[in-house]
Every structure is written in C-alpha cells, then in structure tokens.
C-alpha cells in the first residue's frame, strides 16, 4: 500500500507526532510506503513530495511545526484538485491520502473524497473547534502557553497596579480563552460566543481596586466583540481564504478600559507563540493515536472519514459530520467560568 500524508492550514504543536506515527505504523508494521506532500495541498497539486521512512521521522516527536511544511489553498486551486482527483491517484500511485488539518483542510478533504480520492482525515487545531471530536491536539499546548503567560503577567500587573488585557487565539470559538482564563484565574473572560459590555469589566476592575486588589487580568479571544452600541469597534476585512481579519480586540479593549477607568491598561497579544514550540505530553499522545488509527482506517478502506476522540476512545466519523458546524463554547461552560471570576 502507498499512503500519502500532508499537513495544511495553520501549523500546530503535534503535527510531527502524527506524521511520525503514520510512518511507524505503515512502514514498520505493514511494510507500506509513505510519501509526504510538501506545503499541504499545494504540494499535492504541484507534485512535490518525498518518501518518508523511519530515519526521516526520527527525533521529530517533540518538535513543533511540521517537517512537511504547510500552506492554505486558494479556492480556485481546490477546484482544480477536485477536477483532477482521478489523475492524481494514478500519477502518484497512492492508495490513501491522510490530510492533517483544521476545518478548512477537512472541508477540502471532504471535497476531494467526494471527487474520488481515498481520504482519511486527521483533525488538528489549537482552537479545539472541530465538531465530532472531544479534543484536537495542539489545544492543550496552546492553553498551557496562554496560562503561563497570564501567570507571569499577574506579577507585573500587581507591581504596577495595571490592568492587563491578554488576547489569545480563537476566531469563532473561545475554548483557549475559556480554559486558559480559568486555569490562570483571570478576572474576566471575553468569548466570541457572547458579546461583552465594557461597562461590566469597568465595574469589575473598580470593585477589585476598592477591595485593595489593585490589578486585574482580562483574557479575551481574538474573535470576541462588544455588544452593539457599547464600544466603538469595527469589523475587519475578509482575506483571500474567506477569513475575517480581526482588528485587534485586545488593543481596542485595553485602550477603552484605560479611557474609562483612568488607570493604566496594557494589551498583550500572544499571537503565534501559542502555535509554536514543543507539544505537551497530552498532545503528543493524542496525535500519535490519531496517526495510528488513520493508518488502520486506510488499510480497512474506511475512506471519507476522520479520526476523532470520544471519551478515551479513538473512533472514525464521517468527514461530512466533522465540518458541518464549528464546536463552540456552550452556555454551561461559560457559567462555570463566571462562577470563579
């Protein structure tokens, strides 16, 4: 059997662990051949790939990023790939393709599967917003990075009696903000799922200072936004992939709080540091399990499906089910977080 693997979309801690697992299971266990397409679907379209053997994946388990490179695919090129799906199967001689990626990558995987490519998807995103799986690898690492950052910022905020507004990733789902905010004991958490009123945050800060707690840390997801009419904040433009370019809610909120409070408020944008570096033990294990089960599914001919975590089990679910809607933070999880502010 000849298996192709690629990584697409934003990078994520744990990608290399999946690649390594696929190679170990396919090559060492079954004697299969594995080829890695470079720079995501672009490599598939351009015919750029290399053979992956045990030596080529040695030492990559703890490495961040992806040894194959990654990119986002324009919609026109995706249509081109779907139109030439059967030709690609014959050109590369692949019996299965394992794309590793988030919602956009898996949507493309579904389209390629519908066009005839034998696809087994593996979900990844630090945002943890893929439906049909309890967790995605990369999320645990991102939460840990954000939590450590807020732990550190608390001490400098307290020393200078400041308000720190920490912006974390999360376009449409606030899982990173929710869990890192809870873990760090943030005094306010703003999520995309629920518009916030800056007046509530002002009141919280004033009450803290009145009690002698002369600092505050507020965690805000990049996709969070104020309730209509509560604060001047514009929406961003749309990029070439159909994603909104956010205007920087962390900075805007910090300036708004400073204006209303008359106290120093500093924005801290964590940005891509959440994506980089060594994956946690949890993410390494989950990514390894996903890779193992993807190979098994390919050998069983379970195409048009993806790996998913359900409880403690890895199961296979239809790609169509995975990309129907994003998994957002439910109301009860927001209420849990609010109870410990």
Task: Outline the structure in words.
By secondary structure, the chain is of the alpha/beta class. It folds into two domains: 2-138 and 279-322, Rossmann fold (3-Layer(aba) Sandwich), CATH 3.40.50.450; 143-275, Phosphofructokinase domain (Rossmann fold), CATH 3.40.50.460. It contains twelve helices and eleven strands. It has helices spanning 15-30, 41-46, 75-83, 85-92, 103-114, 139-160, 175-184, 198-210, 249-261, 281-300, 319-322, 331-338, and strands at 2-7, 33-37, 49-52, 96-101, 120-123, 163-168, 188-190, 216-221, 265-269, 305-310, 313-318. The strands form two sheets. Strands 3-2-1-4-5-10-11 form a seven-stranded mixed β-sheet, sandwiched between helices. A four-stranded parallel β-sheet has the order 7-8-6-9, with helices on both faces. α6 (139-160) packs across α7 (175-184). The radius of gyration is 22 Å and the shape is elongated. It starts with a strand and ends with a helix. This is ATP-dependent 6-phosphofructokinase. Residues 2-297 form the Phosphofructokinase domain. Its cofactor is Mg(2+). ATP binds at residues 10, 72-73, 102-105. Homodimer or homotetramer.
